[in-house]
Design a protein that fits this description.
Its EC number is 3.2.2.-. It is built from four helices and eight strands; from the N terminus they run H-E-E-E-E-E-H-H-H-E-E-E. By secondary structure, it is of the alpha+beta class.
Length: 200
């Protein structure tokens, strides 16, 4: 992908509605690569995600509903935001039919919109490091627990389909201790904006 610049504002694809998420979580994860995620107009191209299915123990929903993960058990197309390690927020997109409790974790973006705002929020100039991790991107986009349970197709959140074909690669997920063998991490091959490179 081309290096990002201050004037880099790629055209936006069609708006992704909540129905887009009413499918197998792994299919949705793949199709989100290259889509544009915006929060109050700030964001970029999704270059890395992870899928989590309720049947595997790495998913927050594996042991059933709790006050924290309740939104995962609802209808698809909503945001699930949680605090990771008591430090930073992570944002997920709820997928599959109501009750499935499966979601896609957004791991990294290539900044394209509102880069100056992201730099102020992150106190960082390097565009490659602004959104290269799930906690980094939520800070850059201003995502907090206030965004939990919000619909993904209404302000302040907007998602747009990718406008070009990209080479999507898969690998094992990062930073988990259960179901580590599942190759449910997806990303853009060779992107410089990933949280961690994929094995070659």
């Amino acid at each position: 992908m081309a290096p990002v610049s201050k004037t880099s504002t790629p055209r936006l694809g069609k708006v992704l509605k909540r129905a887009f998420f009413n499918r197998d979580v792994r299919e949705v994860a793949r199709d989100l690569i290259g889509a544009t995620m915006l929060v109050d107009g700030v964001g970029g191209l999704i270059v890395e995600v992870e899928a989590y299915h309720h049947t595997e123990p790495a998913a927050h929903s594996y042991n059933g509903p709790t006050p924290r993960n309740q939104v995962m058990f609802g209808p698809p197309g909503y945001a699930y935001v949680y605090r990771s390690y008591g430090i930073h927020w992570c944002v997920n997109f709820v997928c599959e039919e109501e009750g499935s409790a499966s979601a896609v974790l957004i791991r990294a973006l290539e900044p394209t919109h509102g880069i100056a705002v992201m730099r102020r929020r992150r106190h960082l100039q390097d565009a490659h490091a602004l959104c290269s991790g799930p906690g980094k991107l939520t800070e850059a986009l201003g995502i907090t627990i206030a965004h939990n349970t919000l619909p993904l197709d209404r302000p302040p959140i907007a998602l747009h389909a990718r406008t070009e074909e990209l080479e999507v690669v898969a690998g094992i997920r990062i930073g988990i201790t259960k179901a580590v063998e599942l190759p449910w991490r997806y990303g853009v091959r060779g992107s410089k904006f990933l949280s961690k490179p994929f094995p070659k």
